Amino acid sequence: MARRREIEGDIVMGWPDRKRSTAAARQDPEGRVMFVQTPWWELQGLTTPVDLRYVVQHMGVPEPVPPEDWTFSVEGEGIEHPLSVSLTDLQQMATRTVRAVTECSGNDSVFFDTIEPGGQAPSLYDLDNFAAGTISAGEFTGVPLRDVLERAGLNRRAVSVRVQGFDRGSPGPAPGARRIPDEMNYDKALPLEKALDPDTILAWGLNGEYLRHVHGAPVRLVVPGWAGNWWIKWVDSIEVLYESPWCFYQDEYYYYSESPEDPNREMITTVGVKAAITEPTDHDSPLPAGPRLIRGLAWSGEGEITGVEISTDGGSSWNQAELEPPLDRWMWARWSYQWNVKSAGRHQVMARATDAAGRIQPLKARWNHLKKNYDAVIPLELDFD
Ligand SMILES: Nc1nc2c(c(=O)[nH]1)N[C@H]1C(S)=C(S)[C@@H](COP(=O)(O)O)O[C@H]1N2
Ligand SMILES: [Mo]
Q1: Which DSSP category does 95 fall into?
Q2: The pTM is what?
Q3: Residue of 10, 87, 170, 253 with fewest CB within 10 Å of its CB?
Q4: Residue 325 CA, ligand 1 centroid: distance in Å
Q5: Which of these, 58, 20, 19, 52, lies nearest to 36 by C-alpha position?
Q6: Ligand 1 within 6 A of 226 CB?
């Protein structure tokens, strides 16, 4: 068959160009985007283009505020001089740029069902699956939260920094919740130590442009390494406290426990150490046997990626993949592995990551009833002829 020579895709700047990736975007009746999933396996580098970034929020997207009318407050018992801060005030401070992966705690959650009896795994590469593709990476520019707290006279004996968005609503039903407010703002209470990490920033820039409204403009919190639900969008107030306050999306929604009744709840903080295969995918199967490059991404919430291993024999043996520079602390790393497929038929490929904190990606995820932070290896089944 003659190979189709490709310049047949989109018109870009008036010229025919290669086909671009599209995200799966769900809109409200007025055409405003409410939820986006990212086809991360199609992307060619480390930065997710803003148009392809995932979008998630719990109580709807609030009406935007003109940035010049917007301020946020810094107050609470752990603050000596309460402040009202405008975007211009922030932009008069020294900036910091952080490149990081954002992963929703619900990303890949559907795979928890595969460890329930009779569960069947869907394709990882299918945005019809509601839990897929809620992960993206990018370059955020802003000011360290620490610098703003210090300017307001932070008392270092404080333990908690509650950050609240201006989105308001009702969280709706939540299994195991002991209390569901009728109306609330989205908020989370960051332990002081993470709040003081210089890479925890109040960001107005993303990938070289102003942050967009759906991603939390004028300013959102960036909490590298920690699950997306910590990355408060539409920042409205910051309160420094001597004890950790009750927050719905901390105490009743994003926590680990075995069952809704289980009284032992563990706070969700960092994301797992994970590797994901981007090439080939099960949509490319069947493939010709012979030499075959396996490529993917790996990331961890606790430390730089130190290795990725591949198994093509069901986990009996593991071989090192090559990590492709740069290895950036909070970013995902690209990796590749040369595999020689010697026989036709069905083969299973598994990739597992390790990180500088000494973690090894597990083959089986630890169950939690809310199905948060799925972090186990997801085997890829490929047919060869
Ligand atoms: N104010 C506010 N911030 C929020 C949320 C929210 O509902 N309200 N959702 C959180 C969750 S669960 C995730 S995964 C990330 C998603 O950020 P994004 O929409 O920019 O991808 O925002 C977080 N910040
Ligand atoms: Mo999330």
Answers
A1: P
A2: 0.96
A3: 10
A4: 29
A5: 52
A6: no
